[in-house]
């Protein structure tokens, strides 16, 4: 393959958009996908090859994969599984539907897409699969249970996949961002409004504090980095002959990854339970 190709999910904003832009200017052929048609139009107007891909919809995933493979003649070097959202809410306030919706996008759609592309990469005897996980795929914090469960599950599947693909020429890496400036909080707030009824919850008072955090514009959390901070790690995962299994982004990721090794679960709780 001369020009390296990559399919990226969730390019309407934030990390997906920043990585799509950065890789395009580095010479990659980027298939920048987005959930909504209006974002596909915007991305196309900016010169991206863009397709609609909604991770919650199998038909949409299959359609996007066919569209991309049609254009490349059946090859694809890399996949950056980036699209996801954060569902806020205490665990006891999560309905089965709320949890299912979180997993449909963050896990099931991501795995379905990946599994459609693995045979292509196996045939090529090369490929890169990069999963955008999270610091919250490494440690738990309160009121984020659905999201954390989806990212812990993604971590488990990805570590397994990496072992199963050993020797195939396909390398698998996890990116573990901490706080990144993007539309993530805005989008989380929308899902909170959609699925959680604070007035009916014993957590009502805590939700008020949480709402304040979600509605804060800019860097609400110390050590927040711009979306572009993820790009160098993705480039390493794509271009190194020996990509890492995990890439940490932001100081909090390094800190909590270390703390979880040093502290017992109860002492780790004492630190992380402060993050409402
Ligand atoms: N921001 C952070 O602090 C942070 C920290 C750690 C990890 N991450 C991870 O980084 C990734 C990108 O998030 P971000 O920070 O860039 O937030 P963002 O600006 O909200 O971007 C999320 C992207 O995912 C897309 N998405 C949501 N549901 C989707 C679906 N069903 N199908 C396809 N795409 C979907 C969104 O599309 P719409 O615009 O259509 O909703 C958007 O393009 C996520 O995996 C997130 O978990 C973020």
Structure explained in plain terms:
With 276 residues, this protein is an alpha/beta fold. The protein has a single domain (5-272), classed as NAD(P)-binding Rossmann-like Domain (Rossmann fold, 3-Layer(aba) Sandwich), CATH 3.40.50.720. Helices cover 50% and strands 12% of the residues. It is built from ten helices and eight strands. The protein has helices at 14-25, 37-45, 58-72, 96-124, 145-164, 184-195, 204-215, 231-239, 251-262, 265-272; strands spanning 5-8, 29-32, 78-81, 127-132, 170-177, 180-181, 225-226, 246-249. Strand 1 (5-8), helix 1 (14-25) and strand 2 (29-32) form a beta-alpha-beta unit. The chain is globular, with a radius of gyration of 18 Å. 43% of the residues are buried. The mean pLDDT is 97. The structure holds NADP nicotinamide-adenine-dinucleotide phosphate. NADP nicotinamide-adenine-dinucleotide phosphate (NAP) binds at residues 9-16, 34-36, 53-56, 82-85, 105, 132, 134-135, 177, 179-180, 182-184, 187, 227.
Taken from the alpha-carbon principal axes, the silhouette is globular
Number of helices: 10
The multimeric state of the shown protein is single chain
CATH architecture: 3-Layer(aba) Sandwich
Helix content: 40-55%
Radius of gyration: 18 Å
CATH fold title: Rossmann fold
Top CATH class? Alpha Beta
Largest sheet: 6 strands, parallel
From the helix content, strand content and strand pairing, which structural class follows?
Answer: alpha/beta
What is the residue-mean pLDDT, rounded to a whole number? Answer: 97
Major sheet: arrangement of strands: 2-1-3-4-5-8
Instruction: Count every beta strand, where a strand is a DSSP E run of 2 or more residues.
Output: 8
Can you list the ligands bound to this structure?
NADP nicotinamide-adenine-dinucleotide phosphate
List the uncertain runs.
none
Distance between the first and last residues' Cα: 47 Å
